[in-house]
């Protein structure tokens, strides 16, 4: 794994070589991830895995033609061949009037702030083994748990570096820690499975293995002997471990490439109230130790905190340079980069908490559904139609009753957004966070 400084040197060298070879502009991106993971099952070591992958990608522009190539070989001779091949490919590529680097005058400038994403730790296989064993033991200790799919613990380090031919160079590194357990309750055809997990940049921020394991076991046992869901239009509550998916569907609809292609169900609705006026959804790329914190985006533009929903309305699209050109707008600092063209992504995202507890949110529900797991990908990004398989619990008389399974929930995302009411139990555990959400008027049917 290269250091950030070494990676920036390689990336800048590729950009310089590309312009010397005839490219009008270029950028180069280096990414490396080194991970160690240990898995235990039924108290015995099941797997130890060590992986390290690095990749450097070069994107060049010749006029309005562009091409991208990548390699894992950091040898100087191989990188020189990469440049020649990429420039030759760009000369033969079709023209794209929206292709190009981000505007130079908008590039991030100055030293990048430290968001404390790296705790300086190194992988300790023995400590990982003990954590994997401990989390599984905690899950198996829950009465009613009968089997295990295993416990696991992992450590990772990443490096990211980006350089462009028009003056940007920046990079950062991070560490990662993760612990999970998956166990089974019951016997035979009545078995039920569930899991618990947590990840963080700093080991000190990781939830205790006892809590993670106990949650996995408790959830599995709670799902035993499921009944049938009520059929028809009933109030639905989404548990925090699935409620963030609602925000994910919003992000897909306001992403510049989808808007530019005309494949977003929010086209034409960008000035309309979509949510209750009190709903706030915030993107905060500068959160210390945030799982997706970053000072600049995948094109070298500065990032900034932004309410993407406020006053019930979206505040605009999330744009990379290409989609911004197509729409006649300015890029917003939300570009993401892999090996080729840029895409669009948010950073640390959350839906702000409401004012009432989850218990109060369901207190007036005589018959409803509390969803803890969603299955399938039944969402139409063009129309907003939503239909997902689900499992969870029955709500009766204002309280959570027994488990239910094998049902579907359906509506349209526009109607779901309008009916959404958040509870006050927001917790920052993931890259996308939301509290318990209540949505009335969705249709529940047996699978």
Automatic annotation (TrEMBL):
Residues 232-445 form the Metalloprotease TldD/E C-terminal domain. It comes from the Bacteria. Residues 121-224 form the Metalloprotease TldD/E central domain. PANTHER family: METALLOPROTEASE PMBA (PTHR43421). GO terms for biological process: proteolysis. One of its GO terms (molecular function) is metallopeptidase activity. InterPro entries: Metalloprtase-TldD/E_C (IPR045569), Metalloprtase-TldD/E_cen_dom (IPR045570), Metalloprtase-TldD/E_N (IPR002510), PmbA (IPR047657), TldD/PmbA_N (IPR035068), TldD/PmbA_sf (IPR036059). This is Modulator protein. Belongs to the peptidase U62 family. Residues 36-90 form the Metalloprotease TldD/E N-terminal domain. GO terms for cellular component: cytosol. It comes from Sphingopyxis lindanitolerans.
């Amino acid at each position: 794994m290269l250091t950030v400084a070494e990676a920036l040197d390689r990336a800048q060298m590729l950009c310089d070589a590309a312009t010397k070879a005839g490219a009008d502009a270029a950028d180069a991106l280096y990414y490396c991830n080194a991970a160690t993971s240990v898995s235990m099952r039924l108290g015995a070591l099941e797997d130890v895995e060590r992986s390290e992958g690095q990749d450097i990608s070069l994107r060049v522009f010749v006029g309005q033609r562009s091409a991208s190539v990548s390699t894992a070989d950091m040898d100087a001779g191989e990188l020189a061949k990469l440049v020649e091949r990429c420039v030759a490919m760009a000369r033969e590529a079709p023209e794209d009037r929206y292709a190009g680097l981000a505007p130079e005058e908008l590039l991030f400038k100055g030293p990048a702030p430290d968001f404390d994403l790296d705790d300086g730790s190194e992988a300790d296989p023995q400590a990982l083994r003990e954590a994997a064993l401990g989390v599984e033991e905690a899950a198996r200790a829950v009465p009613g748990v009968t089997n295990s799919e295993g416990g696991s613990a992992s450590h990772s380090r990443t490096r990211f570096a980006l350089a462009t031919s028009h003056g940007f160079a920046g990079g950062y590194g991070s560490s990662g820690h993760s612990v999970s357990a998956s166990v089974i309750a019951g016997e035979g055809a009545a078995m039920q499975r569930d899991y618990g997990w947590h990840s963080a940049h700093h080991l000190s921020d990781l939830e205790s293995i006892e809590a993670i394991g106990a949650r996995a076991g408790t959830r599995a046992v709670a799902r035993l002997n499921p009944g049938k869901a009520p059929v028809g239009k009933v109030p639905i509550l989404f548990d925090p471990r699935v409620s963030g998916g609602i925000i994910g569907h919003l992000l897909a609809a306001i992403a510049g490439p989808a808007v530019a292609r005309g494949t977003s169900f929010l086209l034409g609705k960008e000035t309309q109230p979509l949510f209750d006026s009190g709903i706030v959804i915030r993107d905060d790329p500068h959160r210390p130790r945030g799982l997706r914190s970053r000072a600049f985006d995948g094109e070298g533009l500065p990032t900034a905190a932004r309410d993407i929903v406020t006053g019930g309305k979206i505040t605009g699209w999330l744009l990379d340079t290409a989609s911004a050109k197509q729409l006649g707008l300015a890029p917003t600092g939300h570009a993401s980069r892999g090996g080729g063209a840029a895409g669009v992504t948010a950073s640390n995202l959350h839906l702000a908490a409401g004012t009432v507890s989850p218990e109060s949110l369901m207190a007036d529900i005589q018959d409803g559904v509390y969803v803890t797991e969603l299955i399938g990908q039944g969402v139409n990004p063009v129309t907003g139609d939503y239909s997902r398989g689900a499992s969870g619990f029955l709500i009766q008389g204002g309280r959570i009753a027994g488990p239910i399974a094998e049902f579907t929930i359906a509506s349209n995302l526009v109607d779901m957004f309008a009916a959404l009411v958040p509870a006050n139990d927001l917790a920052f555990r993931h890259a996308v966070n939301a509290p318990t959400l209540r949505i009335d008027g969705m249709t529940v049917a047996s699978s």
